[in-house]
Structures are given as C-alpha cells and as structure tokens.
Amino acid sequence: MNALGSQTDELAVARASQVARGLLTAHPIFIERAEGARVWDVDGNRYLDFAAGIGVLNVGHNHPHIVAAVKRQLEAVSHMCFQVAGYEPYVALAARLNRIIGRGEDYRSVFLTTGAEAIENAVKIARAYTNRPGVIAFRGGFHGRTLLGVTLTGFAQPYRQNFGPFAPEIYHAPFPDTYRGWTAASSLAALDELFATEIAPDRVAAVIIEPVQGDGGFNPAPADFMQALRDLTSRHGIVLIVDEIQTGFGRTGKMFGFDHFNIRPDLVTIAKSLAGGLPLSAVVGRVDIMNAPAPGGLGGTYGGNALACAAAGAVLDLFEGGELVAQAVRRGEQLRDGLVELQRKYSAIGDVRGLGFMLAAEFVVDRWTKMPDPQFADAVMSNARERGLLVIKCGVHRNIVRFLGPLVATERDVAEALRIFDAAIASSVTSRKPGSGNVAE
Ligand code: PLP
C-alpha cells in the first residue's frame, strides 16, 4: 500500500530543484485532496491524517460549514485590510473571542496572520504596557520562526543555526519534565535564581509559556507550576502570556490549555485551529494591557483577513454548537489507553504523555538511560506512513512521535491509527540499529 508512484516522483524532483532546502518536509508525498480525518495523495493513496497540518485541523479537513462560510465571504469581500477600512467579520470575531476567553472581563483582540506574528505582537504589547524590556521563555518551548520567535524558542537546532544575532533581553528557564525528574519546584527555584543572577523581576515585561509544550515534546506543565507562575507574575507586575497556538480549540480536552490550571492569563496567543486551515492568529487579553500600544503600533496587511475571519466564525459555531471538546476527551482516552498498551509491548517507548487528544510516544534507546532515539522515531514515522498513517515528530532531540488527529476522528479512526502504529513499531524493531543519541533534526 502507498507505494510511491510517478506523480509523486515527478513532484519530488521538481521540489528538490525549485524549493529552498531549508524547508524540511516530514513525509515525501504530495496531497491532492482532503476530507475530515483523511487525505489522498497525487497517486491516489489514502492516509489517516494525525498531523492535521500540525494541529490546524481540529475540526477536520474541509468541514462543509467552514467551506460554505468562506465561499460566502469570498463572494462578498475577500480582503480589505483592517488598517484601511473595517468589516463586520473582524469585529464580530473579536467580540466572540473576547467573550469566550475573557469570560465576563473586559477584553480586546487583535488579529494577525501567523502564530509567530501573534507571539511578536504579544511581546510588543507586554513591553508597551510595562515599559520593561525582559521576556522569560522556557527551554524546549516553541514560539515560531521569526527572529524574535526563534529567540524565544528554547531549542538550539535546527531553528537557530547561524541566524543570529538574536533579539536581546530574552531569557530561558527550565520547563518541568516529569519523565526526566525535573519537578515544578526545581523549575521555580531556577526561575528565582534567574531573577537573582540575570534579570531582576522589575525589569521583566512578560513570561511566555505553553500549557503543554508542543514542538518541545508534548510535556504538560504541572498545575501547581502554572499556579505558582500566575502568583509570581502577578506579584511582580509581569504580564503572563499563555501560548495556546497548538493547545487551543479543544486539543487538550478543554477549550484552552489554561483551563486545566484554574488560572487566568493576561494575554493569550492563538492561531492554528482558530480558522480551520486559513491563516489567522490573534492576541486576546485584558483591555488595559491590550490598549497599551498607541494607535498605529499594531497591524499587518493580511492580519484578520476577511476570509480567515469568516472561517474562524464558522469554527467557533462548531465548537459552541457541538460536541468537539467532549469528543477530544473520548478520543484522547482511547488513544492514551492504546499507546500505554503499546508501551507495555515495546521497550523502545520510554514514555507516553500529553493532555486530552494531544498525546505522544517518546522513543528511547533503553528505559534506564532514557537516551533519545531519533532514528527509531524516524523509522516508525516512515513505516506508519507506508501503512497509511501520517504522524510527525517533536522533542528537542526529535525522538518523540506526536498525535494531533482532528477532533472529528471517529473511534474506528483512532483504532486504525493504533493498529498502524503498532505495526510500524514492530517493523522498526526488526530493522533497529543502535540509537544515534542526541542528534537534532
Ligand atoms: N507557538 C506554538 C506553541 C506553536 O506550536 C507554533 C507553531 O507550531 C507557533 C507558536 C508558531 O506558529 P506559526 O508556525 O503559525 O508561526
């Protein structure tokens, strides 16, 4: 099944000769058509898509409600640029998000195009509000590929390469890591030390954190850590930015990741599943902070594009009118049970972790040393694709396979994904070479 055919080969040759090599594609296939949790490549091979555009398609590919909303908007006005003149879908979407995230408090929103742009703007807003320079991010955090984004990102490679100098006044603290014995208490102690040795808290504008590290390895932040971080940032007048770009819109079994911790962030960044496949991101937050930048300080030609706002409105209809979050809980439990079962079967799986339907399996050379095995993870990913399942990797060592299936995936879809993953691991075990250790991709 899924043998590469001539159209794939032709496109692969064209890609190699026309597209910059800095763009790495996880799977050497070209997709022609998509629907729900499935995609078809140019040679007619069908795949269960548990990468979902890296967590963009929580409502599934080409949902008819979204397609209809975008078509309607396309025939009315597709692009105006909010800095030139307003349009209703932008304002209506801001009102809905302010209500959903603000929960009764006075909130404001600004729309941008990509996740990285939302991050950039959240930092600008926090600096304008506090009049301080410093920003604290976390090791293993991922916040995008713009220069500020990669500076905030807590990975050395491949994101940083020789792209420096990087943005000044960015500091990194360790993120708790239960699997490797790094507790919430040790992370808080490290933060205290950072305040004592590198930057005093009254010079810090913002702390930025993912509720579950996405690209960093699907590490959920412990609730006591997030609550302590909320207390500490409030005490020092630091803006707490929660990056919900990957965790948002039901992925973790609640509408937003921060809902697990009983805390309220000051600013929330969202993108990915916000607009069901169209490029849209936002910063949503408390009015006093959001209104700190003077008029003209925020914006972007495509930010809050009318088609994307219409798509996002349709996404919110699906969440408000449906069962998507409950579905994430159910499918997440099924997937977790299945992965834990596979962990019992294969010693190559060192850990299974995540929240809701945001789950991953970490591959290690052995369970004692926990030495990362990125080559094995690669083999599993490729073997899974050959059997009809698309998944991608994560983790600073690229030894973790993550599952980001659409929340509309059925019980049968998840069972099929688990069956294929099992077979992919079995065949990778057969051809296993010694682990390559700490090699980033
Ligand atoms: N923040 C998080 C948590 C992400 O997962 C990502 C993308 O994977 C980003 C920021 C950057 O988003 P984008 O790739 O749309 O710039």
Topology record:
Blueprint: H1 6-18, E1 31-35, E2 38-41, E3 46-49, H2 52-55, H3 64-76, H4 88-102, E4 107-112, H5 115-130, E5 134-138, H6 147-152, E6 170-173, H7 184-197, E7 204-209, E8 212-213, E9 219-220, H8 223-235, E10 239-243, E11 267-270, E12 281-286, H9 287-290, H10 306-321, H11 324-345, E13 349-355, E14 358-363, H12 374-386, E15 389-390, E16 392-394, E17 400-403, H13 411-430
Pyridoxal-5'-phosphate binds next to helix 5.
Can you summarize this structure?
This protein has 441 residues and is α/β, with parallel strands linked by helices. It folds into two domains: 165 residues, Aspartate Aminotransferase, domain 1 (Alpha-Beta Complex), CATH 3.90.1150.10; 256 residues, Aspartate Aminotransferase, domain 2. The chain is built from 13 helices and 17 strands.
Q: Whole-number radius of gyration?
A: 21 Å
> What is the number of strand segments?
17
| Global mean pLDDT | 96
Low-pLDDT segments, ≥5 res: 435-441
* Number of H- or I-type helical stretches: 13
- Unique ligands: pyridoxal-5'-phosphate
SS-based class: alpha/beta
Q: Which H/E pattern describes the elements?
A: HEEEHHHEHEHEHEEEHEEEHHHEEHEEEH
Tell me about the largest β-sheet: 7 strands, mixed
CATH class of the largest domain: Alpha Beta
Might you state the CATH topology name of the largest domain?
Aspartate Aminotransferase, domain 2
- End-to-end C-alpha gap: 27 Å
| Strand order in space, largest sheet | 4-12-11-10-7-5-6
Q: Superfamily at the CATH H level of the largest domain?
A: Type I PLP-dependent aspartate aminotransferase-like (Major domain)
CATH architecture of the largest domain: 3-Layer(aba) Sandwich
**Into which percent range does the helicity of residues fall?**
25-40%
Number of domains: 2
